[in-house]
Amino acid sequence: MPNILFKRILFLIPLILLGCFVFGQEQSDVTFELKLSKEKLGINERLRVEFTMNKDGDNFNPPSFEGFKVVMGPSQSISSSWINGKRSFSKSYTYVLKPNRQGSFALGQATIEIEGNTYKTLSKNIVVTAAVDNPNAPKSADDVADESLHLVAEVSKASPYLNEAVTVVYKLYISPSISVTNFRPVDSPKYNNFWSQDIPVTKYNTNNGTYEGKPYRSVVLKRVVLYPQKTGKLDIEPLSLEIYVDVPTNRRDFFGGKIYTQASKTVSAGRRTLTVKSLPESGKPANFGGAVGEFNFSVSTSKTALNASESLQAIVEVTGKGNLKLFQLPEPDLPSALEVYEPEFGESVRTTVSGMQGKVSNNYTVVPSFRGKYPIPSISFSFFNPKTARYTTINSDEITINVMEGPADAAAINPATGGVAKIAVPTSEQFHFIKVTPNLTNIGANYFFGSNRFYALLFCPFLLIPLVIVYRKKLKKNAESIEGNRLKKANRLARKYLSTAKKELGDEDNFYVALEKGLHNYLKAKLKIETSDFSKEKITGLLNEKNVEIEHTESFIALLKNCEMARYSPFTDVQMQQDYHKASEVISLMDKQL
């Protein structure tokens, strides 16, 4: 019996040792390694970092990559195969890094869990040197994006006159080897010292062309028309965009198609400088008001014949192409016998890539008081034409207003005598207004004292005392609620100017266009100004002159900035709702002060 037991033990020992060997070998077969494309690189190069393992694992944690920026990754790849009955497995996580600065950096350990055990890679040192020339090195996705994207600001005129239109078109040139998936503005220019108007790009159309002699596709991303407000050298700040692109790799999928990887690049159009020329002094008319462009000028009236106390419309109008929003219209010199009201400004201007074109006008309401003929003298309008580099003056026709019926003007001048006109009266009727036979009646011996009228007048004041008390209480009540009435009036005014914006809530583009127009119309109505002629700094100055509180002025300017930012950045429905309520509140508060 002992011999049998001993033999069984001897038989099991080799099996146990073989099992321990196999298990230990399986444990030792697990590998988790860090591989670098290079351990020394220039600051203008890219570093490829690959973490590989021969068995699948979970909870992979990369190092912090201190001193580097991750420009791509992690990208994951898995390969598995059977060769001669033996399974081969490999899995990797790959990163592409860009060095932030020169120096020596330690790439820390990465960790992963495989079959319940935690494995770590070894730390490695990387040296970053100055920029190097390495044309034969394989290009990363960011290298390809750098070479394939170019943002250019095309300026229509490098040396314009003061207040002459300059168009800036921002074009993105894209190599055919990549495709753009999205973009977002990083830094938008402010266009200081320019009056600016954006021309919305509603559709991004791609055109084939060349850039630096190579075939490229181009797309217009932004267009703006500028009118310089100062002479000398003026800088146009650069536009910066972050572009997201798909870059092809050298790998292919199962069907043989190229595998693409995504990269991002920040591109800038660069700073451009304009040399703005001043308008010539020679030949400048005395009535020149700053109009630059090509214009027509006219003065017309709705009627030329009417009766006294009726009204007519006198319209002073400028049409054409140029800085239509940046000059004042000439005023007519009407006879004093015509009552003239403040003009109503009219504007129908659209902005294209060549500048503003359309018409502006002042509509005067004129009411004659006396009959007669009244001339509206000719008015002159002068402008500078940048194409001919000369000034042009246009004179309107003289218009005569014939007032047919109405009272005669007592102050009318007699053209024959040069004095006051006189009315001839026949001699026989010189004293016809004097009555020589008075119509007198006898009132008798009635006395006022003690009569019914006497007592009625005596006690009437006492009867009026209760009415006076009630009236005074009513006045007091109205005085107490005057603040509430002002607030109601201000709120009605705010709703009037913001009604269109309220209808567009939820539609970001239309809402902020309507909100900005409502804010401008409010200032136009309250301050009698055309706010499109003013920058935010000038609007701030005008409100300060009107003693509007700084807090309210800053809130108003902040709303205008939000309207501008909405053209480039997405705004949520909550932000739109907040801006609408804020605009209503600011208009109400400002109106009480204005």
TrEMBL record:
Keyword Transmembrane helix: yes
Highest taxon in the source lineage: Bacteria
Coiled coil, from the record: none
Source organism of the structure: Croceitalea rosinachiae
The keyword Chaperone is assigned to this record: no
A Pfam family per the record: BatD
Membrane-crossing segments per the record: 454-471
The name this protein goes by in its record: BatD family protein
Keywords, sorted A to Z: Membrane, Transmembrane, Transmembrane helix
